[in-house]
């Protein structure tokens, strides 16, 4: 089986190398000469455990090559970005998907399967992608098998989850679904969940919307608790003692290409119906501004001048800064305050300082925005570098407490009472 993947990013590259590891011949296509050159030289530009070893093995066995143009193959996988449009509802921008489909049309032949892994709005596969393929004379379900198979992997564990997670296989026809199940059966050990293409599209979006809405509930509790002077984290801990309650943890906002993007694709399709989803997006989108206000209150109270930001990425132990609330918070602090802002993130070496020790020198506030393992234990020696040893841990991840002069979190804000537990 020959697989041609269009897009060699966070999903396209791991998927390509997984197929190659299991015996497929794979051509990975990307528009970036830099990406293609690095991959063919055996280097990955994505921080993901095991990925470079997979690439090395695939190159040695001549099962993978990167290219700027597609080739003929048996299976074509579209794994390109789908950002939000700058319209009223942040609808799905299909520019890259359409270009990817157009790029493979000259190479398609009867019997091929086209798989869309990019996250797309409901009904996109049937209403937009299917006509693009049929306009060149193919019949979907007979000549070409068209499938939407959304990814559902966790950065940092992508290679494991590609194999072991259940997989939704959404075919335009039943034959398309069966083709998709057969293809992913090459390496997927989880269940193959057959569905219509539209159901698969909406299911993927709802997986991320579910988490976004539940995080918004926790963040709204923070906003309410701050006004009432109550520790929100204590409330969550107490409420979660109920056997059927599991409130998520609050945070400085929601990032990544999934949670901060996908709900808008649903909203745009049915704005008059998606009221709860829309409100959840508003709540999570306002959290960076709330954090900035809290930082200003802390700094004014302590007459501070320097803020050390610990963490740029949207989640811990990855290098992904897409839609990261940290970037919004830093930009707002730089725009609206005169504080000196110093940044440290061990996964984003090209930005900020080279060590936490350097970043904390003469600092008045350690602002933790990402739950990297490196931040869970901040040593007494590192804290001694600070001018005013104050911690604001928005991820509730720092374990070495009681070493700072003052410690704040999304439960313990400047205006919040400390409840006895």
TrEMBL record:
The keyword Oxidoreductase applies. Gene3D superfamilies: NAD(P)-binding Rossmann-like Domain. It comes from Listeria aquatica. Pfam families: UDPG_MGDP_dh (PF00984), UDPG_MGDP_dh_C (PF03720), UDPG_MGDP_dh_N (PF03721). The keyword Transmembrane does not apply. The lineage of its organism: Bacteria, Bacillati, Bacillota, Bacilli, Bacillales. GO terms for biological process: polysaccharide biosynthetic process. SMART domains: UDPG_MGDP_dh_C. GO terms for molecular function: NAD binding; oxidoreductase activity, acting on the CH-CH group of donors, NAD or NADP as acceptor; oxidoreductase activity, acting on the CH-OH group of donors, NAD or NADP as acceptor. InterPro entries: 6-PGluconate_DH-like_C_sf, NAD(P)-bd_dom_sf, UDP-Glc/GDP-Man, UDP-Glc/GDP-Man_DH_C, UDP-Glc/GDP-Man_DH_C_sf, UDP-Glc/GDP-Man_DH_dimer, UDP-Glc/GDP-Man_DH_N, UDP_ManNAc/GlcNAc_DH. Belongs to the UDP-glucose/GDP-mannose dehydrogenase family. This is Nucleotide sugar dehydrogenase. Residues 308-400 form the UDP-glucose/GDP-mannose dehydrogenase C-terminal domain.
């Amino acid at each position: 089986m020959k697989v041609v993947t269009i897009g060699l990013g966070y999903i396209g590259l791991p998927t390509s190398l997984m197929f190659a590891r299991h015996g497929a011949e794979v051509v990975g296509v990307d528009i970036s000469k830099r990406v293609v050159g690095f991959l063919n030289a055996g280097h990955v530009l994505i921080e993901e455990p095991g990925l470079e070893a997979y690439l090395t093995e695939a190159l040695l066995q001549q099962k993978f090559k990167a290219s700027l143009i597609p080739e003929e193959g048996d299976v074509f996988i579209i794994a390109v970005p789908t950002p939000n449009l700058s319209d009223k509802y942040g609808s799905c921008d299909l520019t890259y998907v359409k270009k990817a489909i157009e790029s493979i049309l000259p190479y398609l032949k009867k019997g091929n399967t086209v798989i869309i892994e990019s996250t797309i709005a409901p009904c996109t596969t049937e209403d937009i992608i299917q006509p693009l393929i049929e306009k060149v004379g193919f019949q979907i379900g007979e000549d070409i098998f068209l499938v939407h198979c959304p990814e559902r992997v966790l950065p940092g564990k992508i290679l494991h989850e590609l194999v072991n997670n259940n997989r939704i296989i959404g075919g335009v026809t039943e034959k398309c679904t069966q083709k998709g199940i057969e293809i992913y059966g090459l390496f997927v050990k989880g269940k193959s969940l057959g569905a219509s293409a539209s159901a698969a599209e909406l299911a993927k979006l709802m997986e991320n919307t579910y988490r976004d809405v539940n995080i918004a509930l926790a963040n709204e509790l923070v906003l309410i608790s701050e006004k009432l002077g109550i520790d929100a984290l204590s409330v969550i801990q107490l409420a979660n003692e109920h056997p059927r309650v599991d409130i998520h943890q609050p945070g400085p906002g929601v990032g990544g290409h999934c949670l901060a993007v996908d709900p808008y694709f649903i909203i745009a399709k049915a704005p008059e119906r998606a009221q709860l989803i829309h409100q959840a997006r508003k709540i999570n989108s306002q959290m960076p501004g709330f954090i900035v206000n809290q930082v200003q209150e802390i700094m004014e109270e302590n007459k501070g001048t320097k803020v050390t930001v610990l963490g740029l990425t949207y989640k811990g132990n990855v290098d992904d800064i897409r839609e990261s609330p940290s970037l919004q918070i830093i930009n707002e602090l730089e725009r609206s305050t005169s504080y000196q802002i110093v940044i440290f993130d061990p996964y984003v070496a090209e930005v900020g300082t080279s060590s936490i020790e350097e970043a904390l020198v003469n600092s008045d506030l350690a602002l933790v925005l990402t739950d990297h393992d490196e931040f869970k234990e901040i040593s007494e020696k590192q804290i001694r570098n600070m001018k005013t040893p104050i911690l604001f841990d928005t991820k509730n991840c720092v374990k070495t407490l009681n070493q700072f002069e003052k410690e704040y979190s999304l439960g313990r804000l400047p205006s919040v009472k400390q409840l006895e537990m």
